[in-house]
Amino acid sequence: MTGKPRPRTGSRVAAVQALFQAEQGPASAETVIDEFVRFRLGAVAGSDGFEDGRVHDVDVRLFTRIVRTATTDQDRIDPLMSQALSADWPLDRLDPVLRALIRAGAAELSMADGPPARVVINEYLDVAHGFFEGDEPKMANGVLDRLAHMLRPAEFPAPAV
């Protein structure tokens, strides 16, 4: 990331990476969180990019909370994600990074004390554009919007008739 530091955005980028890593290997989410906190979060002198998957500006508490929520509540989150996807796109058909991104967004949307749903959606849309160049950000936007309506209906008043 260039420009003004955005630690909350960095937390979301790192959470997507950690959830992807946790899904791909035998390590527990707690092990992955520890590895990220120790070796992949924060700036290294003389570097200014995302080399080796490193994320510079991170709110570690938010990162940890997103990853823990996404993994501990996965039995609740995944059925909601499946419900938000179209019938011809089952959860296991999603690209693993896209699945991790939507899981992270769903976890954050499930946090009652989190930022407004539209902020969460916009943040993960920005993150999606960092990972994908195709239609995946549009898909993430649509699925996260449906999840936001399910998880935070009070933020989306019914249209006037």
Give the helices and strands, then pairings.
Blueprint: H1 7-24, H2 29-40, H3 60-72, H4 74-84, H5 96-109, H6 117-131, H7 136-151
Helix pairs in contact: 1-2, 1-3, 1-5, 2-3, 3-5, 4-5, 5-6, 5-7, 6-7
Rg over CA atoms, rounded to whole Å, is 16 Å
CATH architecture: Orthogonal Bundle
Structural class: mainly alpha
CATH domain class = Mainly Alpha
Shape: globular
Number of strands: 0
The percent of residues in helical segments reads 55-70%
How is this structure best described in words?
With 161 residues, the chain is mainly α. It has one domain: N-utilizing Substance Protein B Homolog, Chain A. Helices cover 61% and strands 0% of the residues. The chain is built from seven helices and no strands. Helix 1 packs across helix 2, helix 2 runs antiparallel to helix 3 and helix 5 packs antiparallel against helix 6. It is globular.
State the gist of this model:
This protein has 161 residues and is mainly α. It is built from 7 helices and no strands.
Index terms:
161 residues, mainly alpha, N-utilizing Substance Protein B Homolog, Chain A, 7 helices
